[in-house]
Amino acid sequence: MKQMNLNDRILLGEGYTTEFKQAGTSGLGREICAFANASGGVILIGVGDDGRIIGVNNHNGLKSEVQNIARSSDPPIAVEIESIGEVLCITIPTQNSKPYSFAGKFYIREGASSMQMSRSEIRDFFYLEGLIHFDESPCRKFSMENDLTDDVWTAFQKRARIPTDMAPFAALENLHLIHEGQMTHAGAWLMARDIRKFTPSADVACALFMGTDKVRILDRRNYNSDIYSMINDVVAYILSKINIEYIIRHVKREEKPELPEEALREAVVNALAHRDYRTTANVQVYIFSDRVEIVSPGGLPAGMSKENLGTRSVPRNPLLFATLYRMKVVEHIGSGIRRIQQLCREYGIGEPKIDTSEHWFSITFPRSGMGYRRDAQSQPESQPESQPESQPESQPESQPDSLALRIARLLQSGPLAKSEISTGLGQKGVSGQLNHVIRMLLHEELIEYTIPEKPTSRLQKYRLTNKGEILLKYGDGESTTHD
Fold first, then answer.
1. Across-strand partners of 183?
2. Contact 483, 402 (CB under 8 A)
3. How far are the Cα atoms of 456, 463, 464, 466, 472 from residue 446, in angstroms, in the given order?
């Protein structure tokens, strides 16, 4: 870093990637650890909180102390140290062995401060960095006696190609679906009668809309059996709602969907295999007159970028993915997106659009015009009584009162960040109306901050108050028709 760059950084002040330290190394281990667990940063020793250059002496001695502090972290943190005039500049590059701890504690950068992580924050950090996997964790709600019935095992045994003479327990242990006598979440999802019993948001919501927006819903279905069955059911639902071209060849009629079935199946498999099952949002399939959208909660897993799609595979749920591969649901590891693109090109339609964010992943297939076809939208299926047609679940914007209740229902399962609330509502981003309703709920003391002393904290979440619980109990029934 040159003197000019140093002056520019000082002018910008302290922040997420910059820390000023007047002198000495007191508390330096915490700061270095916090930057290492974030995206890196710079610590300037010899600069006051007000940005004045004070300078420090004995740079060589300080450099030795800094190196010792960085090495004493667990694991050791790589730092770069240089003298720029009277200022000692410590650069912490982006690290590759997260998470890091110092003196047995974990720290993270929050705004312009370094904060110790709570137990729940450490757990979430481990999941985020892909260091532990939810699908491999024990599913306490799964009863080996009551849920692993003969018919459940027979269906799974056939799908997973397990020899008929192998005992269920031994087979499941060899497949790592049982750990220390307890079924894992991956095993529970693959052998569920109703997957919501084990993970409430693990179902798939499908909706057919009139036109190109979510103003009017024609049909809605929710699928909540085991993952293998849900994949088949969701693909069948999509095919039943899109156009079909009838091709007559030598008196024999062939049916050609306007979108390739294999590509749709691959997209549905990816949505269920790679989604984040810890969120309160479910996989959602939207069918419009001009497109089919498949949206799954959870952005790209740690170690993946949008540019890597189609060339690398970093499963968020490796145990689930490996079992689906054994079931031949997944044919080629690491080639899902590339295969979808290739299938669409071979089919003669445009490649699907892929969008990602920190909390969701979506793939959108453009619907094409075809010759003679049946009109899928003229055949809506009957709407279940429990899910009225007046508004789709993913269209919260039109009814503020209903939106408040839906937010309350989401928060009933525990504190959520604003982006997680948005994802749970089926939105692709935090809308202006969502911000407005959250402010209203805060003002009415129906919800509250989890970090009230820092309302704008990056780690801020919202939770129900006792007053909010009353709203959920007595106000829910009055507004269900708006959902």
1. 178
2. yes
3. 19, 9, 6, 7, 10
> Are 464 and 447 in a shared domain?
yes
113 lies in some domain: yes
Mean pLDDT per block of 10 residues along the chain (483 residues) reads 76 85 90 88 92 92 94 94 93 85 88 79 66 81 94 94 90 87 94 95 94 90 95 94 78 81 94 89 94 88 56 71 86 71 90 87 82 38 37 37 78 89 84 82 87 86 84 49 33
**Which domain range does residue 166 map to?**
134-197
What is the chain's percent helix, strand, coil content, to nearest 5?
35, 20, 40
Lookup: tokens for 56: 């420090």
Q: Which two tokens stand for residue 325?
A: 């591969």
Residue type, 428: K
In a domain, 323, yes or no: yes
Q: Based on the domain organization, do 353 and 208 belong to the same domain?
A: yes
> How many domains, the chain?
4
Note whether 368 and 289 are within 8 A (CB): no
| Rounded CA separation 23/419 (Å) | 39
* 464 close to 472: Cβ distance less than 8 angstroms: yes
Contact 428, 439 (CB under 8 A): no
